[in-house]
Here is the input.
Amino acid sequence: MKVSVSKDFGTNRKALLPLVPEPTTVLKKEDLAQVDLFSDPADNTSTKVKFSFKILKGGNGESARDVIQWIINVERAFAGLNSNNGQLHFQMIQQFAAGAALSGFNHNVQVLAGPARATLIATAQAAVNADDGTNAARRTALDTHLAAMQALTDETVLAQAGGLQIITTALNAMMTMLLPNKILQHVKRYLRREARKPVDMTVREYLMHIIRINTQEIPRLPPNFNHAQSLGDDEIIDILLFGTPKSWQREMDRQGLDPLASTPYQVAEFMERIEMSEDFDSDKKTTTVAQGKGKGKKKSNYAKGISDADSRVSVGSSLRPVLVKKGWVGGGADNDQKARLESTMGINL
Here is the structure.
């Protein structure tokens, strides 16, 4: 048998990252960022592909999944443009974000860029101070480098070494600001306790949704923003066992399959065979019941016909003495009159 539960099973609050993503709505053109990506990022002459995605505004009714999908799209845009310069990333994000999201990101960059610029200046100054002045060309190069570091702004410093790390840290801080508190804890709790397989979803689709959340969305959540906080195979198997019928687990026990000694794909494959066999048995029972109903209906109509005939004979027998006394039937009665009575009253006299 299959299990179907309500959308808010186990809680009155909506899941932050539901098992099944909500349908994407068509947006207005001004709400989209559009870029032309290289089919081969390493080749600037390769074919370009148009890529559009929703601009992130922050605090504008955007869900946690909207925020995560935005960062995935931004990473795709950076890769498709073969952009490995922090300053270029900063400039593109000015087009990819707006509102509170962009303000938060720019503030984070400003906070991080100041100390980075000061470090570069201090390093260049130390090199100048350490020079013994015996090489005029070297001294000139050191002075030029120091002047260049002193001329850096909060934006141009992003083109220096460490600029990409500043952008990454600023984006992570923006994500932390926009996403709900303790979102990683809530998402994992939802998967373990509430994300049961819907009745109209196959086991394979169920596993694919879990893997998508685990590999694409959980690694982009605070606090760590990496794959180390993703679920392990044993945890995914526990989710599969919880989200499917208990009878499937008993079938595993009967056939000697240890789920925790298998991979999630092997467990899902075993469950898929059970699912297919149950669907086959269900179709067979439905056909049998349908045929039984047809036969029963025919028998019922036949029995009803016999009952109606008996009723007509019984009523006719009880009325006959009265009709004979009235002279309407019997020896002196007209046969035509008798036939009319039988037809009108629906009885046998």
Notes: The longest helix spans residues 264-326. Confidence is low (pLDDT under 50) at residues 4-11, 302-313.
